Amino acid sequence: MNKKLAYPIVLTLAVFMVVARVQPVRAQEEISLSPPQVEIAKKTYAEQLDVYRVKEQRFMVSREQYKQVQTLASLEEVVKASKEVQTARIDTLLTYFKVLQLTMNELKGAELTKKTVQLERIQAILTELDVARNRIANSNDRIALDNASAAYESRNEAYVSAAYGALTLIRIAHTQTATDQLGLLSAQVFDTITAASPEASVLAEKQRGYDELARTITQIKDFIRQAFTRSEGFDQYLFTAASYAQITDILNSAYAKLKLGENFVKELAK
Amino acid sequence: MKSEDQTQFMEDQLLWQQEAAAPMMVSKPTAELPITEKKKPSIKTFVLVGAAVFGSLIILLMMLMGVGRNGLQLIPEPSPSPSPTLINQTEFDKAFKRLQNDIKNADATVNDIPFPPVNPTLYIVTQE
Q1: Which of A122, A134, B10, B91 could form a disulfide with B87 if both were Cys (CB 3.0 to 4.6 A apart)?
Q2: What pTM value is reported for the model?
């Protein structure tokens, strides 16, 4: 009686415990579905940019023709071309900001608050662009289309600012991630060397190498800090390609040191 | 009214009409088998069953509470802390490859997603 009863009980308990242990879906770093999505979005973006360029060229030709001949037929042509090019422009931007959104979503090494702010800005812009697209779709004459174009122009600076703000954060985060990995690997290598108990002279040499590597990492961290401080100094709503260039100048120095660190750690592991 | 020990006339008649029969042979092993009383479940069994049911309920309750609180959302798992550990050659090669990739991504001169070069002034009639 006891045995007959005990087996199912133990089995039930075991099943419950396994289910209870397995139930939460954990977000591990390795599980990432985004990279293919980013790549697909980048490809779509490149295609849409090509389409936009063709439409822009066609619009310029139509506009020039309308200026010269000033006929209703040429006006019809340029209105149609304007609608097409403005739609293509919005589509290009929509995909571009989706690429940025996907990149930001899987970004490691970025401060969470900063990342959230950037993602919220991108989301707001995506919503705004959707509205703009609908407006263009409902515009059928010269006045309405030029008004839609004016609305876009008034917002272009905000779009550029959001894009370069996000790109700056992405650059800083990538440098931070590489620095963290360099620090971790160099410590692992040195610990392994120490654990192997080499001769005193070899250990002293490795110690000097490790110290130099540690100094290099400190310098990289300093560059990251400078880049971060500089980015904080800019008005986040007036961020431009020039501001971004200033940040990347600083990060280039960090990158040079990272390359140096890469060589050092490889040498240290020999 | 018929009392418990009262014998009816018909029953008496039937009883006396029956021939006397030899006692039935009962196989010895069966006959000698001791009559065992059906055991009542012991306290140990009660405790075991009780503990199992109680444990199952607790686990079920915890699971339900967990689902209720978190839904089916992803529970972020903290990144492994960068505590140095000993590594062998294979692990080093793998980690070094990752480092190289991370450093490649950190190249600030490469920007494969600059802001699209779109014309912000696409007017049919030039705005003044």
Answers
A1: B91
A2: 0.68
